[in-house]
Design brief:
The protein is globular and about 55 Å long. The chain has a single domain, classed as Penicillin V Acylase, Chain A (4-Layer Sandwich), CATH 3.60.60.10. It is of the alpha+beta class and about 350 residues long. α5 runs antiparallel to α6. The protein contains six helices and 20 strands.
Length: about 350
Amino acid sequence: MTRLTPTIGAIAAFLAFVAAPVAEACTRAVYLGPHDRVLTGRTMDWKLPMVSNLWAFPRGMERSGAAGDRSVTWTSRYGSLAVSGYDISTADGMNEEGLVVNLQWEVEATYPEDDGETPTISLSVFPQYLLDRYRTVAEAVADLRENPVLVQGGEVPVGPPGRAAAVHLAMSDATGDSAIVEFVDGEMTMWHDRNYQVMTNEPTFDRQLAIREYWQGVNPREFMPGTVRATDRFVRASFYINAVEQTSDPRRAAAAVFSVMRQVSVPWGISIADQPNLSTTRWRVVADQRDRRYYVESVISPSVFWVDLANLDLTEGAEVKSLDLGVDMERVLSGDASLEFEPAEPFTFQPAD
């Protein structure tokens, strides 16, 4: 199995932690406001200090699946703003058409066996594949079904060797449509519906839907589960994302989504010995898919900043640029940070096994 190799800076950031178990426990929710005001928020919950930078990728980039001789190749149709994971993978992002992809931990994920025929792609680049190629969720789902790719995994980039990266991902678009992509019993499974607004880490999404159905029979204003467990966060996010103020005002809508993301966040420094899938929230993002504005909040920063995709040069032939945020996004920024990006060599996606 391929070992994901972090940068030197990332290694230094968590030398004191490498003996600890690694886990991620995130929450994602889509806000379906009036007048097509669609926003997607997510938390990034991770046990160890995390290096996540912002990257502006223009149209026309030549890409490879980083998964051996049968790697799928493509040219990016759409420019995107991506959040990296240790500068070896895309963990989150939004493209210029408003498609958002959120990568999250999924305890039960098992990836397909190589069939010797299907084009292959590394898990590290799969979210970017979606951002590069698709305008809508429906387009992505249809193409993945008609022209499948074989997603191959690797190990998590930090902590003890040998721990497989087990994830699933969510997509949403500017129309409010959603899809969940999971790897269940060695098969890629897609759940596609506008009503699939919320995703957490476990159990598999079909069982998350059963949990939602059960709690629909309980008055949430009288009782709601309050722990940091994934199932409890799923219930709370499902209620609050529709209970908060529903407005077309972009500032107030973003505030509403951030309030939900904070409500389902895991307090700083929290870890539960017998439940390693529960981890501290390190950062939160909210993507306004109508205005193409991407808000970022580190839990150790005193302020929120944002990037307007309209202020990034995403035209074919433009330079790749990055915004270096440091460990746990410790760099303090406020307001519009679109002009803070600097030219950079694109990072190399971690190859699959």
